[in-house]
Amino acid sequence: MNNCGSGHLAALFTILIWGTTFIATKILLTTLTPVEILFLRFVLGFAALWLARPKFLRTQNSKQELTLAVAGLCGICLYYLLENIALTYTLASNVGVIISAAPFLTALLECAAAKNRRGLTRWFFVGFITAMVGVCLLSFHGTRLAFNPLGDGLALAAALVWACYSLLMQKIAAYGYPTILATRRIFAYGLLFMLPCAALSDTAWNWAALRQPLYLGNLLFLGLGASALCFVTWNYAVKILGPLRTSVYIYLVPVITVTAAAVILREPFTLTTAAGTALAMTGLFISGWKS
After folding, report:
1. Three-state SS string across 64-128, please?
2. What local confidence, expressed as pLDDT, does residue 35 receive?
3. pTM for this structure?
């Protein structure tokens, strides 16, 4: 398999895992706070990456170190905090739709930063509109449509932060460092920036709950699978495909989510859900390949 094919497989694998994390998070939220879940999952992720490759990363200069630090701030700390805070102010369906706009924001930032200023093709816009119609069908089906300026604004900020992280990962990939070592350093900075939030938030650290297999298993899934493994595979995909072609896989997150809900939680899979799934996948194809 060529590098391009492995990059697409890595991105698809990552989205398959990330699309099911809502179930694990929903279970853990019955006993842990969002900050506790976030902090513990990335501590586990950092430990797993250290065990996978116990070698210290030596960067060449302070500029590269700063880039890794900003990536940790954006992709690990700010993105998840903004998303979680947004969920306390607005509907989950709103957050899902707005976060799915991350590929479009990534494209705009990439065009703004590109030296050749090629701009975006019409096919990218066609794919984006098609996918977003599908995402809206999946997210708003059976729920009321309501807007909250603060919550929706925070969700948009989270999508923008993720777009920045994607572009930073392209820059970090050019440094030539092993993906595991670079990802682990990003985790370290993300945890460092998270410490003040953990200290100031209402955290009780319910360690007793983690002795129960249900909670421990879901936390391990988030830490080892969705964090350690998936951030490595996502960063690898960005390294191979670039931030834009990788980010369009985000269109599939609502598809994976509703499918997992139908299989695991026995939620209904309706005709509207099927139409939304088809449109989201069509938009992914147009944006990722046709454009």
Report:
1. HHHHHHHHHHHHHHHHHHHHHHHHHHCCHHHHHHHHCCHHHHHHHHHHHHCCCCCCCCHHHHHHH
2. 84
3. 0.84
